[in-house]
Every structure is written in structure tokens, then in C-alpha cells.
Prior knowledge:
The chain is mainly beta.
Amino acid sequence: MASFKYAGFLQHNDSTAFDALLAPGTIAHNSGIYRCGACGDEIAANKNNPLPPQNHHQHAPGVGPIRWQLIVFAVQRN
């Protein structure tokens, strides 16, 4: 589970970007932390780069398919 120390650096957001379950290799639309919905593994991904491919993250038999879900996204200020 993602952790943080300073709550003031985070804010609640109801964006639908948090609802999508993404297949391995999908292009990340947001930079941030993604969590595998089946096993709970977390990774950091950069916007416009692909999420880890199927062979990067393996599950034991019966765990379920790899599906990445955005749990924290980074906001860039211009």
C-alpha cells in the first residue's frame, strides 16, 4: 500500500482516471503510482510511457490477471 508522511502534499480528487483498470503495456495517461488489482504490487510510471509489460510482473497461478490502477497521480505546474 502506498504510504506518505506529509498529508499536506496530497489532496482528494474524484477523477475517473482512478477508476480505470489497465492492461500491461497500456500507455499511462498520468504520471504516478499504479497498483496491481490482483496482487497489490505497486510501480511508478511516467505519463505517455507504457505500464510494465506482462513479462515484467508475473503472478502465481490463480492470482488473476495483471491490471494496473492509478492510486496517486503527480501534478506538474507550468
